[in-house]
Amino acid sequence: MTITRVLRAYPVFAASHTFILCIVDRPDGRELVKMENSLRNCRICGKVYLHLNGPQICTGCRDDLDEIYFRARDEIRNTPPGERLDSLKLSERLDVDHVYIRILAEEGLFEQEETSSEYTTSRRDLADQFASELRKIEQRGAPEDSNPGRMFIGERRERKNI
C-alpha cells in the first residue's frame, strides 16, 4: 500500500480501541483508509501524533532530532582519536536531552561512524598491497616482444579453426 500523503485524518474513539480514518493520496487516486494502532505518544515530548513509520516521535521532535544528528556527527568527528565518547558525554557537550542521543544510537546512525575508520584502513592496506605488486612487476620487466594488442591472438586463431 503506497501512500503519497495523508490529506485529512479523523480520530475515532471506540469503547475497545482507537483508530483513525484517513483520506490519503495514492498514485491511482484518493481513498479512505482505516489505520489502526497509529495513534501514539511521542517518546520525547509525550504529545499524541499519527505514527506512520520510523521511531515513535512526533514531527516536531523529528525535526529537532535531525538537527541534533548533524551536530552530534560533527562533534564525534571532531573528537580526538583516543578519547572515548558515550551518550551522556555527547548529550552534555551538545546541551540536549540524552533521549535524543539514545534514539539516534537505536536507529543505528552512529554505528556507521565506527566502521568507517576500519573500512578506510582496509582500503589503505589493499592499496598498499596493490602498489607493492605493481613494483614487483615493474622490477621483473616486460618481455621485449610483448604487444598489448596481440595478447589474445592465439586464442582467436584457435576459435576460428574449431
Characterize the structure shown.
With 162 residues, the protein is α+β, with helices and mostly antiparallel strands. The protein folds into two domains: 1-37, no CATH class; 40-135, no CATH class. The chain has five helices and five strands; from the N terminus they run E-E-E-E-E-H-H-H-H-H. A hairpin with a 6-residue loop joins strand 4 and strand 5. The two termini are 57 Å apart. The mean pLDDT is 76.
Low-confidence stretches: none
Number of domains: 2
The average pLDDT score comes to 76
How many DSSP H or I helices?
Answer: 5
Strand order of the largest sheet: 1-2-3
Fraction of residues in β-strands: 15-25%
Please state the overall shape, judged from the principal axes of the Cα atoms. Answer: flat
Question: In which range does the helix fraction lie?
Answer: 40-55%
N- and C-termini, Cα separation: 57 Å
- Helix-strand pattern, N to C? EEEEEHHHHH
- Rg, Å, rounded: 29 Å
> Got a strand count?
5
> What structural category arises from helix and sheet content?
alpha+beta
Task: Give a brief description.
This protein has five helices and five strands, in the order E-E-E-E-E-H-H-H-H-H. By secondary structure, it is α+β, with helices and mostly antiparallel strands. The longest helix has 30 residues, at 111-140.
Question: Key terms for this structure?
Answer:
5 helices; alpha+beta; 162 residues
